[in-house]
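dude i think i finally got it to work??
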Amino acid sequence: MTIRLATFAALLVAPAAFGDDWPHWMGPQRDNTWNETGILDKFPDGGPKKLWSFPVSGGYAGPAVSGELVFVTDYLTKDKVKEGNWDLVEQTGLERVFAVNAKTGKAVWKHEYPVKYKISYPAGPRCTPTVDGDTVYTLGAMGDLYAFNKADGKVIWKKNLKAEYDVTNMAIWGYAAHPLVDGKKLIVVAGGKDSQIVALDKATGKELWKAENGSDEGFGYVPPSIVEYGGKRQLLTVSPTAVRSLDPETGKRIWATPYKADNGSVIMTPVLSGDFLFFGGWNQKNLLVKLSKDKPDSVEVVYKDDKKKGLHAVNVQPFYLDGVMYGHDQSGKLMAVEVSTGKRLWETDAVIGYSKDSGTSFIVKNGDRFFFFAETGDLVIGKLSREKFEEIDRAKKVIEPTDTGGGRKVVWCQPAFARKKMFVRNGKELAAFDLAK
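look at this
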C-alpha cells in the first residue's frame, strides 16, 4: 500500500541544484568516495548540527539520496526483536519504504507490505535502496524486491525472490546483497539452486539470465560487482563455496575457484588490485588469486586461509586505495593490508575505541581525508596511509546506538553523504547532520 504525502510538483526540481547524490550502497560509484567540496575540516563545539529527524523503526539498511529525496526502509513489528546471532527468529510485521524530503525531513510517500521473518538479527531490511533515473529499487530481508516510481511511490513491478526462485536454503541473515544496476539490467543475488545470481530487465522485472548453483550453506550476502580486467568486463559473485567471475551480459562463467566459507558467511565484495583479487570472511577465511590476461578463464591461487595475512571483513566493505585496503577485521581492529601480498602494515582500535568481534566503522573518502562512522555512533575525521591512521577530530554519538550486536549496543547502518550533509539512521530515527564548512 502506497501513501502519498506531498505533491508531485514539489519533486520536479533538478538534482544539480542540490549537489551530489548518494543513490545507492557506497555512493555514486559504489566505492565510498564523496566528491563534494566545501566540507568542514573540524566539527563545531558539540558536534555537527542536527538539521532534522524522521521517525523510523528497525533495520540495517542505510539511506540513499537522489534529487530532493532520501529513501530508507524499515520493519515495524509488535514483537520484541531478539539478537539471535546464529538462531532463526520468527516474527511478523510490516516492511516499509519511505521517501523523505532531504531539506525538511518531512515524509513524501511511503509503501508498506506484510512480511513474516525467519532469520537471525531480525531487526529489519539490510539493503540500501538503489536509485536509477526515475526508479528506486528496494530489497527486503525475505526477498521482496520492488521497483517504485521515485516521485510518487507507485509500484512499477515487484517479485519475491525466495518464492520465484524456489529458495529452500535461506541464508541465515536473510537477503543482504545490495542490487546492482548495469545498463538495462538489475542484477540481484536470488539464491536459488540454479540461480545464485539473476539479471532482470530493470524496467519490467523480466528475467534476462540466471547463473550458478547455490550452496548447502545458504547463498551468502556479497553484493554483485563489476570490474574491468584485461579489457573485459567481469561480474564478480561469491557463494559460500566459490568465488566466480561471470560475463555480465549473459551470466556465463569466465572463471571460478573454490572457497569454503564458515557458517555460510560471505559478505565483503572482492577487492581487485592490479592482477590480484582478494576475498576474506568470517573465522579468518581468506583467498588471494592472481588473474592472467593471457588465460582469462582461470586464476592462480596465491594463498588461502592464511590467518596471518589479509583481513576478514564482516560488517563493512574495506576501502581500497593505491594497492592497499583499509578496513575492519572481524576482530574489530582497523587494518591496512597490502593486497598483492596480504601483508598487514598496521592495525589499531582507535576509531571504535575497542576491539570486539564484528566491530565496525563505515569509511568514506572526502578529498585527502576520510570520514569514519563508528558503530558507537561517533563520527570521526581522519587520515589513512600505508604508515598509520591519524585522527583529526571526533564528534561523540551523533546518533544513539539502538541495536544489539555481539552483546553490545551498536548502530550498523551505513550513512549517506550528500548535499554537504550526512544522512544516517538507527532503529528509531533517520537524521540529517550539517557537514558544510
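The first strand starts at residue 2 and ends at 4.
im so relieved honestly
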